[in-house]
Amino acid sequence: MVRAIVCTGACVAASVLLAGAMKTDGLSERARKLHFSCIVVDTHDDTTQRLLDGKFDLGTRTSAGSIDIPRMREGNVGAIFFSIWIPSKVTGPDAVNRAIVQIDAVREQVRKHPNDLVLATTAAEIRDAHKQGKIAALLGVEGGHMINSDLGVLRAYAALGVRYMTLTHSGNDEVSDKTFYDALETSKAPLIASHSSCRAICDAPRNMTDQMIKDLAAKGGVVQINYHVGFLSQEFRDAEKANPELNKTISAEVTKRCADNEGCQLIEGDRITREYVEQGRLPRVEFSKIIEHIDHAVKVAGIDHVGLGSDFDGANMPYGMEDAAKLPKITEALLQKGYAEGDVKKILGENTLRVMTDVQLISRELNGGKQKQESRLQ
Ligand SMILES: [Zn+2]
User: Fold this and answer.
1) By C-alpha distance, which of 34, 32, 42 is closest to 67?
2) What value, to the nearest 5°, has the Cα angle with vertex 146 and ends 229 and 311?
3) DSSP states of 247-312
């Protein structure tokens, strides 16, 4: 009798477990289907630096870093903004020259891989690329220090395909939160925060306060959540701050491995940080932290104002989000959290596509208005 009871208990427990597993499997399947039906847009990755040394090719799958065509295919990346970035100590004509070399390097990869990549500058071109089964490659300039204080340079970048410029990068410490508000006030079009997370969860100056997120959203913009552990986790940030020697050691090791090769520095920085986490010298950050930031931003700004700006190949990635192939996990985690499929679709890309369309319409209106004015004058 006792044995029978034990058996019944065990069987019930086993079937509960089985039901649980089936439920998770069902969810995984639904998440996969949903993820691969969406246009996934990533508004920031730093792979461009890797293209500069001439050895790295996007078409070859590698184990280092986060981005190449095979892994983007696995993660169903529909559109990706390749960052044009130069350390902010480089300014003036030198910065412009180096930016042009980087723009060319991205365009060259598109030329080399016509079956996988297509250069895009609008939401419509991204949708077309998706229909053709290709990944849309876009360009974004990371930091206003790259235009040599000349709006003509910015227009030249735009003519080469660049579709956003961030106001600043970590080094431009003369730029404050107020600049964000100045830009918001000045711009007639909605803005994006191309790769920023939530300051309410992790107090990093590159993250957005709740008020900033609300104000950005009120103007129709989108905050693109960044996956960098130092922007996701307060615990990680505190641990780094508490031990400044650790950062110095990491920097020294990076220089030893990479000298002044910036692409190498970004990849090795991530790798060495991981080694320190494995040794227990820095806290481990899970990818679920990304979901926490997305969820917070959605609560603050509404579902129409949150997107993804990974910072792949330019930052330290959390466990579970090592590369673009892992992206379907975001979809699964959001469904698990109870997000509706339509809402997940918005976060994965539709919100960004909407902003791009809005910006283009406003730009057309402004230019059209100017043309009319000019013809009146003639
Ligand atoms: Zn970057």
Assistant:
1) 42
2) 20
3) HHHHHHHHHHHHTT-HHHHHHHHHHHHHHHHHTTSS---BTHHHHHHHHHHHHHH-GGGEEE---B
The DSSP bridge partners found for residue 137 are 80, 119
CA of 46 to the centre of ligand 1 (A): 5
CA quadruple 123, 125, 128, 132: dihedral positive or negative?
negative
Helix (H, G, I), strand (E, B) or coil at 44: strand
Contact 12/50 with Cβ under 8 angstroms? no
DSSP lists the bridge partners of residue 225 as 308
Distance in angstroms (rounded) separating the CA atoms of residues 266 and 325? 19
pLDDT digits (tens, 9 = 90+) for 217-259: 999 999 999 999 999 999 999 999 999 898 899 999 999 999 8
Tell the residue number behind the tokens 């679709």, with chain if given: 345
Question: Closest by alpha carbon to 40, among 130, 131, 161?
Answer: 130
What is the Å distance from ligand 1's center to 1 Cα?
67
Interval between CA 195 and ligand 1 midpoint (Å): 8
Neighbours of 371 (CB within 10 A): 10
pTM of the model: 0.90
pLDDT band at 12 (very low <50, low <70, confident <90, very high): very low
Compute, in angstroms, the gap from residue 128 CA to the centroid of ligand 1.
Answer: 26
Residue 261: its pLDDT value, please?
87
Rounded to the nearest angstrom, the distance between the alpha carbon of 305 and the centre of ligand 1 is: 21
Amino acid, single-letter form, for residue 77:
V
Tell me, in angstroms, the distance from the centre of ligand 1 to residue 210's CA: 23
Which CATH topology does 26-233+285-366 take? TIM Barrel (3.20.20)
The pLDDT tens digits of the residues spanning 322-331 come to 999 999 999 9
Q: Locate the domains of the chain by residue range.
A: 26-233+285-366
The mean of the pLDDT values for the chain is: 90
pLDDT per position as a tens digit, 27-70: 999 999 999 999 999 999 999 999 998 889 999 999 999 999 99
Q: Where are the alpha helices (DSSP H) in the chain?
A: 2-37, 48-51, 69-74, 92-112, 123-131, 151-159, 177-186, 210-218, 229-232, 234-242, 244-258, 262-278, 288-301, 328-336, 341-345, 351-377
**CB under 8 Å to 7, separation ≥6 — which residues?**
none
